[in-house]
């Protein structure tokens, strides 16, 4: 009898957790438009990399998440790691990663 009560408790506990779990994906932690502003606030080098990547990406990172978190992200990361100091590089990537992480 004690084992069956434990089983019932476990089953209801699992059902309760499943029902209480969110069904919708989380909202992005940062809006796309804010990412560019924040990267620009880091310094001139990341701003230049952002502008260069926007010109070379072939898509609009301000309108398309697959662009922002795809080829555009790769171009900005490559540029900042090559041309900017470590602090600027890490700060710019942190803002972009925040926008691309669900």
Automatic annotation (TrEMBL):
Q: Which residues form the signal peptide?
A: 1-20
Q: Name one GO molecular function term.
A: metal ion binding
Listed A to Z, the keywords are: Disulfide bond, Glycoprotein, GPI-anchor, Heme, Iron, Lipoprotein, Membrane, Metal-binding, Secreted, Signal
Which Pfam family would be a valid example here?
CFEM
The CFEM domain covers which part of the protein?
15-102
Q: Where in the cell is it found?
A: Membrane; Secreted
* UniProt KW Ubl conjugation keyword: no
Matching entries from InterPro entries are given as:
Extracellular_membr_CFEM_dom
Family statement = Belongs to the RBT5 family.
Question: Any idea what this protein is called?
Answer: CFEM domain-containing protein
* Organism expressing this protein natively: Ampelomyces quisqualis
């Amino acid at each position: 009898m004690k084992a069956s009560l434990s089983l019932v408790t476990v089953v209801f506990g699992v059902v309760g957790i499943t029902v209480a779990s969110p069904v919708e994906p989380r909202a992005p932690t940062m809006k796309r438009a804010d990412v560019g502003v924040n990267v620009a606030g880091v310094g001139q080098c990341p701003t230049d990399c952002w502008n260069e990547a926007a010109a070379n990406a072939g898509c609009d990172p301000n309108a398309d998440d697959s662009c922002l978190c795809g080829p555009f992200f790769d171009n900005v990361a490559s540029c900042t790691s090559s041309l900017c100091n470590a602090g600027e590089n890490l700060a710019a990537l942190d803002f972009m990663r925040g926008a691309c992480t669900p």
